[in-house]
Amino acid sequence: MTIPPQQAGNNNPNLAQALVAALEAYGIRHAFCVPGESYLALLDALRDSAIALTVCRNEAGAAMMADAVGRATGRPGLCLVTRGPGATNAAPGIYIADRDATPMLMLAGQVDRRWRGREAWQELDFPATFGAMTRWCGELDDPARWEETLHRALAATTAGRPGPAVLALPRDLLSLPVPWPARLFQTPAAIGPDPAALASLAKSWNAAERPLVILGGSGWSAEASASFADFAARYGLPVATSYRRASLFSADHACYAGDLGLGANPQLVARIKASDFVLLLGGRLGEVPSQGYNLFTPETSARTLVHVYPDAAEIGRVFPVQAGIVASPHAFVRALGRLDLGRPGRWQPEADAAHAAYLAWSQTPLPQPGDVNTGEIMVFLRDHLPPDTILCNGAGNYAAWIHRYYRFRAFAAHCAPACASMGYGVPAAVAMKRLFPQRPVICVAGDGDFLMNGQEFATQVQYRLAIVNIIIDNASYGSIRMHQEREYPGREVATDLINPDFAALARAFGGFGATVTRTADFAAAFRDAEASGLPAILHVKVAVEAITPTATLSTLRAGS
Question: What global pTM score does this model have?
Answer without folding.
Answer: 0.94
